[in-house]
Amino acid sequence: MEFKSKNVLIIGGTTGIGLATAQAFINAGARVWITGRNAHNLEEAARKINSENLNTLVSDTSKLSEITQLEQHFAATGNSLDVLFLNAGIATFSPLGKVTEAEFDAQFNTNVKGHFFTLQQFLPHLASNAAVIFTSSTVATASNAGGSVYSATKGALNKIATIAANELADKNIRVNIVSPGPIQTPGLDLAVPGDGKAYLASVTAMQRLGHADEVANAVLFLASDSASFITGTELVVDGGYLNYALK
Q: For the purposes of burial, counting CB atoms within 10 Å of the CB of 158, is it exposed (0-12), middle (13-18) or buried (19 or more)?
């Protein structure tokens, strides 16, 4: 897939799926901007990718003031945006009786509010034929114990994305969802310690965890001209997790 001279913004691009997707877009010839809350992580990402086509911006998607600053920074470049990948996300897992307000607010602010208002602020910058991709998750469909809040954030994203696909179709902007299953990332290491990852691998049809670059390939497909008649769709990248876990 070819993205030469295309402009790509990845919200949450310092590690895991975001970093792998940034590398894939760079390899395909794109100019890429990645955001992250942590300057050190951005520096590490820039070191790993090592490309003059990569730009890094410190930005916390859970804060509307920083979304505004991000939009102003991009506007100052004079570029239009061909791909907006809304990927940042956090997860904590607790049974219903133990979820705190802080946990609830942190996940909804990052996973839902941040992406909603980032898309809203960047609407004027989206080129005709632009692609918007949300990172959701198979948990939006599954009903895993302890995941009520995280799953709810992903379910909300799915609905926002499908409505956005309808609203933006007349502008020739496509909006789609990529929903990973269990993927080996630093985020998974934090959220699922110990033997939990082995269990997740065991409930996929392919009997393994996925790799971040496998999700990146799906994102590039949805962003490419090969997906020109695809909008409002969820592409599941889960190694058969949903079907296997529910059989």
A: middle
Spatial separation of the C-alpha atoms in residues 87 and 10, rounded to whole Å: 7
Is the CB of residue 181 less than 8 Å from the CB of residue 238? Answer: yes
pLDDT digits (tens, 9 = 90+) for 83-123: 999 999 999 889 999 999 999 999 999 999 999 999 999 99
Maximum C-alpha span of the chain = 52
* Three-point CA angle 45, 129, 73, nearest 5°: 45
Residue 61 and residue 12 in contact, taking contact as beta carbons nearer than 8 Å: yes
Reduced to 3 states (helix: H, G, I; strand: E, B; else coil), residue 215 is helix
Q: Which two tokens stand for residue 232?
A: 């409002």
Dist. CA 32–CA 9, nearest whole Å: 6
Helix (H) / strand (E) element for 178: namely strand 174-180
Render pLDDT for 28-47 as a digit per residue (tens, 0 to 9). Answer: 999 999 999 999 999 999 99
The values of phi and psi at residue 174, to 5°, are -95, 140
Which of 150, 199, 241, 244 does the annotation list as catalytic?
150
**Catalytic residue list contains 150:** yes
Q: CB under 8 Å, gap of 24 or more: what pairs does 75-80 form?
A: 75/125, 79/7, 79/31, 79/125, 80/7, 80/125, 80/126, 80/127, 80/130
Do residues 84 and 61 lie in contact, with contact meaning Cβ atoms separated by under 8 Å?
Answer: no
